[in-house]
Automatic annotation (TrEMBL):
GO terms for molecular function: ligase activity. Residues 358-447 form the AMP-dependent ligase C-terminal domain. Signal peptide: none annotated. Keywords: Ligase. This is Phenylacetate--CoA ligase. It comes from Desulfoferula mesophila. The keyword Metal-binding does not apply. Gene3D superfamilies: 3.30.300.30, N-terminal domain of ligase-like (3.40.50.12780). The keyword Ligase applies.
Length: 455
C-alpha cells in the first residue's frame, strides 16, 4: 500500500462521517450565528427560507435549508455593495473592510469575476496550514521550488502561495499571461522540483518544451506535477500522458471558493480528491441535485452539486452557496492509500452541463472518451454550440484534433469510432468533425470547452 493520506487534524483519523459531523456541529452553529449577526444578506436569507437561526443545530438541519447563494447572487451582492457601500466585496461581507488581508477573484470566464476568495489575516492563518498539509502529502517540503504558473495578482490560485511558503518551499510564481516561452525559460533557469499549473498547460508544455529548450519535459526532472483549475488527471489518458512525459507522479488538487481542500493520492488509478480538512467547510457533506435543487442523501456513489457553507471564515463566509461543481462521492476507504474519509470525483460544472435528447452531458465525460483515441488525436476538442446552452438540438457537434497524415477515409473511420465510443458511454451520438493538429487554440489558463457559434 502506498503512503496513507491523513486529515490535517489527526484527531479525525478513525472517526466515522456521523462522528465528524457531530464534532463539527458546534463550530457550524457559531459560524451561522456570526453570519446572521454580521450580514443583512444572510439574515434576510434565513427569513426567506422560513428558518430561525436556532433551527440549525446539525449538518442534517443544514442540508434541509434551500440554497442561499449562486454566482449570479454573488455578483448582485457585489454590485449592490459597490453602489451603496463603496466596496465590491458584497453585502455578505461580515468583517470590516479595513481588516481584509487578501482578495482573489474567480476567472470571470462565464461573467463578471466574483471576489469569492477574500480573506482576513485570521482566515489565511487558518487556511494556509491546511493548504500546506495538502501539498506536503504530494511530497512538497522545505527547500523545494514550485514553478507556479497561474494567473496571479487578484486571482483565486494566489492563496495557494501561502501554503507553499508555510512549508518552507520557494514559489517561483509566474503569471500565466506571460506565455509558455517565459515559463519554460524560468524552468530551465531555476530547475524547480514541482510544477503547478492547469492540466491543459501541462499537456501543452510537452509539445512546447522540445521546441523551446531543445529537450523533453522529462529533463526538467520534476519530483511532482500539481494540477488544478479544470478536469485533468481524473481522465486516465491524461494522467498516463503526463506521468510518462514528465516521468514523475501527478496530483489533482483543489479548493473551490477557498473551501473543500482536496488532493488525489499516488494511486496508479485515480481515486478522487481526498477531503483532508473537513473542518474548513461542509462542502463534501451537502449535495443537491443540479437540476431540481433537492438535497441528495450523503451515501457512497452519490452524485450532486456541492453546496458550500464555511465553518471558519471572517471576511466573506459562504452559507449554502451552490458554486457549480458536480461531484460523485465515495465513502469507503481509499483502496490505494487507506484514507478513511470522504473522497470526491469531479463530474463537471453545473453551468457546463448540456441536455441532448433528455440526456445530461458534461464536457469532461466527452473528453474522457476522446482521450481514449490518443495518439491518433491530440486531446484537444471543442463542443460547438449553435444556440445558448443547456439544451442542444441534436446532434451535438464535436470538433476533435487529429495527429499525423490521415486521408479522408481514415478520418471518417476515426470520427465514427469516436462517435460510437461517446454513444456507448453517454447515450447520445455526436457529429464528430476532425480538424488538423494546431487548429484549436491552446491556452495558458483554463482551456474553453465550448465554441459558441451563436455569438
Amino acid at each position: 500500500m502506498k503512503k496513507r493520506f491523513s486529515y490535517y487534524m489527526p484527531e479525525m483519523d478513525g472517526l466515522s462521517i456521523p462522528e465528524i459531523e457531530a464534532m463539527l456541529a458546534p463550530r457550524l452553529r457559531e459560524q451561522l450565528k456570526y453570519c446572521y449577526d454580521s450580514s443583512r444578506y444572510y439574515k434576510e436569507k434565513f427569513k426567506q427560507a422560513g428558518a430561525e437561526l436556532g433551527d440549525i443545530q446539525t449538518f442534517e438541519d443544514l442540508r434541509k435549508l434551500p440554497v442561499f447563494m449562486t454566482k449570479e447572487d454573488e455578483r448582485a451582492c457585489q454590485e449592490e455593495s459597490r453602489q451603496k457601500l463603496g466596496h465590491t466585496f458584497g453585502t455578505h461581507l461580515c468583517a470590516p473592510v479595513d481588516e481584509l488581508y487578501l482578495t482573489g477573484t474567480t476567472s470571470g470566464t462565464t461573467g463578471v469575476p466574483t471576489f469569492t476568495y477574500t480573506f482576513t489575516k485570521n482566515d489565511l492563518d487558518f487556511l494556509a496550514p491546511r493548504l500546506a498539509h495538502r501539498l506536503a502529502l504530494c511530497g512538497v517540503g522545505k527547500g523545494d521550488r514550485g514553478l507556479f504558473c497561474f494567473t496571479l495578482g487578484i486571482y483565486a490560485t494566489t492563496m495557494t502561495l501561502w501554503g507553499l511558503r508555510l512549508l518552507g518551499a520557494l514559489p517561483i510564481d509566474i503569471d500565466a499571461r506571460a506565455g509558455t516561452d517565459t515559463f519554460l525559460k524560468f524552468a530551465d533557469l531555476t530547475r524547480p522540483t514541482h510544477l503547478a499549473c492547469t492540466p491543459s498547460l501541462a499537456l501543452y508544455l510537452i509539445e512546447k518544451c522540445p521546441k523551446m529548450l531543445g529537450y523533453p519535459v522529462s529533463e526538467l526532472k520534476l519530483k511532482g506535477l500539481l494540477t488544478t483549475g479544470e478536469p485533468g488527471i481524473a481522465n486516465p489518458a491524461i494522467k498516463k500522458t503526463l506521468e510518462e512525459s514528465y516521468q514523475c507522479p501527478s496530483f489533482d488538487y483543489w479548493s473551490p471558493a477557498g473551501h473543500a481542500p482536496g488532493i488525489s493520492c499516488l494511486s496508479d488509478e485515480y481515486q478522487g480528491l481526498h477531503a483532508i480538512a473537513p473542518e474548513v467547510c461542509t462542502s463534501y457533506f451537502d449535495l443537491i441535485d443540479p437540476i431540481s435543487g433537492e438535497s441528495v442523501p450523503l451515501e457512497d456513489g452519490a452524485v450532486g452539486q456541492m453546496v458550500h457553507t464555511s465553518l471558519h471564515r471572517e471576511a466573506c463566509p459562504l452559507v449554502k452557496y451552490a458554486y457549480g461543481d458536480v461531484v460523485k462521492i465515495f465513502l469507503g476507504e481509499c483502496p490505494s492509500c487507506g484514507f478513511k474519509g470522504i473522497r470526491a470525483k469531479l463530474v463537471g460544472r453545473a453551468d457546463d452541463m448540456l441536455i441532448v435528447k433528455g440526456v445530461n452531458v458534461y464536457p469532461a465525460a466527452v473528453r474522457t472518451e476522446v482521450m481514449k483515441f490518443k495518439p491518433q488525436v491530440t486531446g484537444q476538442m471543442r463542443i460547438v454550440l449553435d444556440s445558448p446552452p443547456p439544451r442542444v438540438e441534436p446532434p451535438l457537434k464535436l470538433k476533435v484534433e487529429y495527429q499525423g497524415n490521415l486521408d479522408q477515409r481514415e478520418l471518417d473511420a476515426l470520427a465514427e469510432k469516436i462517435a460510437q465510443a461517446v454513444h456507448d458511454t453517454l447515450r447520445m451520438r455526436p457529429k464528430v468533425i476532425m480538424v488538423p493538429e494546431g487548429d484549436l487554440p491552446r491556452h495558458t489558463r483554463k482551456t474553453p470547452v465550448f465554441e459558441k457559434a451563436y455569438e
